Amino acid sequence: MSAGPAESDDVPEGYRLVTHHAAYGRHNGPFYQKDEGTGFVRGFRVLDRHLNQAGIIHGGMLATFADMVLGQAVRTIVGKRAFTVRLVTDYLGPAQAGDWLEGRGQVLRQTRSLAFAEALLAVGGRRVVKASGVFRIDARPNQPAAE
After folding, report:
1. pLDDT of 40-77, one tens digit each?
2. Which of 40, 55, 122, 145 is the most exposed place for a label (fewest CB within 10 A)?
3. Which structural domains are found in the chain, ordered by start?
4. 38 CB contacts (<8 Å, ≥6 apart)?
């Protein structure tokens, strides 16, 4: 199944390309983000390379994207890098090639060294993944929040 038009031509209005400095993010993307009220929404077009043998998005890709959404929520609120300590993903439904998958995250609680966050991934309002995570806040000085 084809993912449709060229990736750069098939992005909903208002999204900007997320620049990844690490190869992992560049390889799995492209990912896009837009501001929404006091938060953000991150999204990507599901491509053939994201699919498993059953023809739906691979669970590992969903977990990767959930981790990125959660991490960005923590960086946005805390203003520092944070590292995943625990990631829990509940798979609620499939996504297919051509779907626009969106993720929204929020920080539920923060201590001096940890942040607790949750995210919801959806296609057109249909829930695909609910995720939660615990993140260790980078205590090193001068560590800016990276995208």
Report:
1. 999 999 999 999 999 999 999 999 999 999 999 999 98
2. 55
3. 7-137 (3.10.129.10)
4. none
- With 0-12 / 13-18 / 19 or more C-beta atoms within 10 angstroms meaning exposed / middle / buried, residue 105 is buried
Measured between alpha carbons, how far is 107 from 35 in angstroms, rounded to an integer? 16
CA gap 9, 128 in Å, rounded: 24
Listed in sequence order, the DSSP H helices in the chain are 23-28, 59-78
Band the pLDDT of 79: cuts 50, 70, 90: confident
Q: What angle do CA 46, 74, 116 make, to 5 degrees?
A: 105
- pTM, two decimal places: 0.87
